[in-house]
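Justification of resources, computational component.

The compute hours requested in this renewal are based largely on the per-chain cost of generating structure records like the one below. Each record pairs the submitted sequence with a full structure-token output. That output is archived, and it is also reused by downstream analysis tasks.
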Amino acid sequence: MNKEDGYKMHIEIQQLKEMGFNKSQIARRLNISRPTLDKYYDLNIEEFKDVLQSMSTRAKKADQYHDKIINWLKKHPDISASQIYDWIEEQANSHPGFAENTLRRYISNLRKKYNIPKTKHPRLYEAVEDPPMGQQMQVDMGEKWIYKADKITRVKLYLIAFVLSHSRYKYVEWFDRPLTTADVVAAHENAYEYFEGIPKEAVYDQDSLILYSENYGDLIYTHQFASYRLERKFKVYICRAADPESKGRIENVVGYAKNNFAAHRTFINLEKWNEDCLKWLGRRANGKTHGTTKKIPAQVFTVEKKYLKPVSEKIKNDSSDLSITYQVRKDNTIPIKGNRYSVPLGTYKGPESYVKVLEDNDKYLIYDFESTVKLAEHKIIKTKGKLSKNSDHGRKKSDNIDKLIEKITLLFPETKKAAKFLARIRKEKQRYIRDQLFVIEKALENKDNEIITKTLKYCIGNKLYSASDFRDVITFYDKEKSKPQNENILLVTDNVALNEKDKSKLAAKPAVRDLDVYQKIFGS
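The structure output for this chain reads:
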């Protein structure tokens, strides 16, 4: 609000007040909010001058961000004032020097001055009464396309969000790939650790990672989630289709995380992204007054957490699916907490190359993303900016593979066909060729040449170029060969009619020795 508009508004308030209009009527006539009217209603002209001067001083503090704000508004016309304030807070270490409402007015004036209107997409929600403290948590997932630092390449991120329905205290975790049920379970454990407790029930959408099927009200959970639910002992409420009101709180959180935190933010790596998200949760999502409850979630949470069931020791699974996923860099290293750890040369196959990292005491265990093959093991570095490189990660292992293929080829009677077969497997399963060869070598043990030849012919003829297929086929032929050869003959002869000659044989009686003969033999 500039001084001219301020003085005009103050004069109109006083004139309408003298004419006998009540506050509601004055607010409607001047098109201002009741809080704004209450703020200026009883001020005399000198007091109002002081308020305008104070507003002008605070606005000048926002002027230092003038060019940045204009740039943000022009690049992202849909951006909210609260997100801009959050960015300024982030840059100013949470001390921008002016209030969020001051910035809202400042941005409103800039939008009018530079004609940058904001597009709105309103949604309608039905009010739902808040459940008691510690009663309910709502969970949902979403996804968001984000630009990388080059402003050209985009990456699709996936999030899972949790909110305690009473306090509106939130937790959000991001992934750079589609979630698995194991990821969902691990995220629950992280959320309970963040909440310092477990609510009595959780509300979910009809997600295939949690719910296998809904049979007329009988819920059938996925095996992994069902086991986890029984272990943690919490109730589950699955929202019915087209029932947004029952999970409106969490839908708001997913949208809030996507549009206030993630929108227009540059993606560097997943680790930094989640670190920044945790800071955002503390600074804004849980640290600012909630629009509906008019309370700060973090403050209400200090009371609600007393009603949560205490968290026992964090559940850990032996599966590396509960590990953290990292993207492999072009130099065949992965960045973890400010340091770089090497993986074998050739692990990087392009931008979509990922590995899983499991922290085991003082070591990082690095596994291939699509298999259980362990790629590397590194001692965790406590400082920053270091490189941990295994001595053999710089050497190509193709020579060893060539020798292994040559060795296994000689186990086949038809070596030329076998060489082509193994070469095709190497082409299609390049990253797992060593494991493929070991499976084939094991399958060939103690098999005769006829079965090996038959299996090779079948696999090539049906284009089965994998070790598991080869193993299954050779096992089948081996079992077929071990069956009794006269089974079918016996079945046939059982049904053949006997001729007269055969019947006479059936009437013949075998010779029977006298028992004295055997007594004499044993007696001697």
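The mean pLDDT is 80. The longest helix spans residues 45-63.
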